[in-house]
Amino acid sequence: MKAVKLPDWLRWLSGCVLTALASGMLLLAAGSYYYGSVRDAWAYARGERVVVSPATVRFSPGPPGKPHQVSCRVKNLGTEPVQLIGTSACCECAVTKGLGVRIAPGASENIEFTFLNRTPVPRYSKVVSIYTDNGRAPELRVRLESVESSRPATTGL
């Protein structure tokens, strides 16, 4: 069988594509290693210095009057410490752990919410704001959503 010789421009183009792919994978691996995850590396590349994950916390509604505990993680990607100074919510939700803490650069802290459902609610979706002393990220938002009992809930971390 006779070998097919590719044109020079096609060999050059395939070399460029392979180099770009290898460079991208190397950058993703380095970002993952340094920031802990690809998501945090992308957040840093977009200019975010304080991130919250998950941004949407899903929980099963349960019976009325029973408190639900959910949590999220706030991570400081910047070079200066960040303090969590307060929250506001348009729901019956309270932060029970994590306010007032100072998060060192590269560190993270769990924030726990207690949500009290006084009446049966088939579908619930509210936003809780977490305020920081960071000028680049003065407000972080977390969405609390109820899910049907047949779907899996993400109660935080």
Helices and strands, with pairings:
Layout: H1 8-35, H2 38-45, E1 50-53, E2 56-59, E3 67-76, E4 82-89, E5 93-97, E6 102-103, E7 108-116, E8 125-132, E9 139-146
Parallel strand pairs: 2-9
Antiparallel strand pairs: 1-3, 3-7, 4-6, 4-8, 5-7, 8-9
Helix pairs in contact: 1-2
Structure notes:
The protein has 157 residues and is of the alpha+beta class. It folds into two domains: 1-35; 50-146, Immunoglobulin-like, CATH 2.60.40.10. The chain is built from two helices and nine strands; from the N terminus they run H-H-E-E-E-E-E-E-E-E-E. Strands 2-9-8-4-6 form a five-stranded mixed sheet, with no helix packed on it. A four-stranded antiparallel sheet has the order 1-3-7-5, with no helix packed on it. Strand 8 (125-132) and strand 9 form a beta hairpin. Helix 1 crosses helix 2 (38-45). It starts with 7 loop residues before the first helix and ends in an 11-residue tail after the last strand.
Q: What is the CATH H-level superfamily of the largest domain?
A: Immunoglobulins
CATH class of the largest domain: Mainly Beta
Q: Domains counted in the coordinates: how many?
A: 2
Helix content: 10-25%
Largest sheet: 5 strands, mixed
User: Helix and strand succession?
Assistant: HHEEEEEEEEE
| Class by SSE composition | alpha+beta
* Through-space gap between termini: 58 Å
- How much of the sequence is in beta strands? 35-45%
The quaternary state of the protein chains shown equals: single chain
Mean model confidence by pLDDT: 80
Secondary structure tally: strands: 9
Q: If you compute it from the alpha carbons, what radius of gyration comes out, rounded to the nearest whole angstrom?
A: 22 Å
Can you tell me the overall shape?
elongated
Low-confidence stretches: none
CATH architecture of the largest domain: Sandwich
Tally of helical runs: 2
Provide the spatial order of strands within the biggest beta sheet: 2-9-8-4-6
